[in-house]
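User: Thanks for the earlier help. One more: Ribonuclease PH. Can you show the sequence and predicted structure together?

Assistant: Of course, both are below.
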Amino acid sequence: MRPSGRDLSEMRAVSIETGVTKHAEGSCMIRIGDTHVLCTATIEDRVPPFIKGSGLGWVTAEYGMLPRSTTSRMRREASAGKQGGRTVEIQRLIGRSLRAGVDRVALGERQITVDCDVIQADGGTRCASITGGWVALRLAVNKLLKTGDVVSDPLVDPVAAVSCGIYAGQPVLDLDYPEDSDAGVDGNFIMTGTSKLIEVQMSAEGATFSRTQMESLMDLAEKGVGELVALQKAATNA
């Protein structure tokens, strides 16, 4: 029934390659099907002015899509002179999602910026960015622990995300682009490794949905996030 031939509860093939850039404190390339995202984490000994002197750390994110990450070339946002609304919304989502798994007191007064650059898009880029972003963040924090710059681990729980939706009347896990573009309902589910919810974004795209259907999507999301967290831990030896 699914264009890819997958079962309703089957994820696309997922791989996480770490240490893919030379200079970043943490980096990975996450591939979820044909969606590929480069995630890098940068540690800086500064924080935004609104928390300066508080002793709290900060985790933030930036997101972007390369011009040929899609079927036709997109203009670089830098050439337009500003970021689009979608970009701003997604990078704020990534930042607040990752912060939900961080003890900012233990992190200390420093900032970690996670950059997520979409190399190739086939649906679920924000979910892949959050999942890969946590891996890059984990690797960067590992360096702080190794050097003794932080004493206790500030990452209290892994964070991962997956999309689910109602496609052809059936709840399905991990939408690719053909499904996402034709789904009656779609949603993004951001959760911790202990199945705590961070954020749920759900909307009807031409068809309403029931509470029972919402709960079936939640069950699928929990299964998918569990698989992603296992891959995150394997990639970072956590």
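User: Great, one quick takeaway?

Assistant: Helices lie at 77-80, 85-99, 104-107, 125-147, 177-180, 211-236.
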